[in-house]
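Changelog entry

Holo records now carry the ligand SMILES as an explicit input line rather than a separate metadata file. Below, a converted record for adenosine-5'-triphosphate, shown in the new format.
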Amino acid sequence: MHPKLEVRGVTKTFGSGAGSVTALAGVDLEVAPGEFVSVIGPSGCGKSTLFNILAGLDSPSTGQVLLDGAPCAADDLLGRIGYMPQRDLLMPWRTVLDNTILGLEIRGVSRREARLEALRLFPEFGLEGFERRWPSEISGGMRQRAALLRTFLAGRDVILLDEPFGALDSLSRAGMQQWLLQIWETHRKTILFVTHDIDEALFLSDRVYVMSHRPGAIVDPVSVDIPRPRDYEVTTSVEHVERKERLLELLRPTREVLEA
Ligand SMILES: Nc1ncnc2c1ncn2[C@@H]1O[C@H](COP(=O)(O)OP(=O)(O)OP(=O)(O)O)[C@@H](O)[C@H]1O
Ligand SMILES: [Mg+2]
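Structure line, unchanged by the conversion:
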C-alpha cells in the first residue's frame, strides 16, 4: 500500500541572489493512511513553509510531493488536503457557526445544509451554545476548536495542523491534546502535526520527525509504539522520558546553533 502522503527531497528557496533565503534543504517524510505524525523543530526551520507546499499554496524549488502514490504539482494539491494554518484565521465578521462552514461552502454546499452538518458536530467540538457568538467573544481554546471543526468539516482525509495549541497555557493544552486524540480516533483521519513541544509530539503521534535548524532538513523519525487509547499519564513513563531524551539529542545541533 502507498503512503497516504509522501515528501521526497523537497527544497525551497525564497528569492534569488544575495537576498535569497533557503527555508528547506531536503525534506523526506511519509505518512501512512490513518497515521498521526508530528514534525518538531525550532522556530524558522521551515515547518510552515513545508505545510504551505503540502497544501498546494506554494511550490517546492526541487523535489516531489506524492498523494496516494501519485506525484502532485501545487495545483493538484490545492483543496485536496485539509489545512489549519498557524493562526486560526477566523473571520471576525462571521459567527462561530458560519466560520466553521467555510470549507463546505467553498465546496458548493448550500449554507443551510452546511449549517445543519456543522451543528451536528458542535457538541463534540465543545462549542454547543456558542453558535451565534462572534469569534471575539469566545476563548482561545474555543477559537482553536472552531478552526479545527472548520478543517474537519472541509472533508479531506489528510489534515495538516500547524501548531494548533501553540497559544494555549499548558493545562488547556493537555486537555485539547486528549480531546484531539478522541476526535482523530472517531473520525479516522491522517494527520500531520507541527509543534515545538516534545511532550505534545510524543503523546499524540505514531511517529515524530525532527527538523534541523534553518534551512530545515529532516533527521530520522522516532517511533512511538505506545498503545492507544493513551492516557495523559503516559507522559511520565520511563519509555516516554527515554524517547524525549532521544529527541532532545536529535535537536541538540539546533540548540547549539541557537545558543551560540
Ligand atoms: N514567503 C516568504 N518569502 C521569504 N522568506 C520566507 C517566506 N516564507 C517563509 N520565509 C522564510 O523561511 C524561513 C522558514 O519560515 P517558516 O515560517 O516556514 O518557519 P517555521 O518553522 O514555521 O517557524 P515557526 O516555528 O516560528 O512558525 C524563515 O527564515 C522565513 O523568514
Ligand atoms: Mg510556522
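Spot-checked after migration. The pocket of magnesium ion (ligand 2) is lined by residues 47-48, 86, 162 (CB under 6 Å). Residues 1-81+160-166+194-260 form a domain with the Rossmann fold fold (CATH 3.40.50.300).
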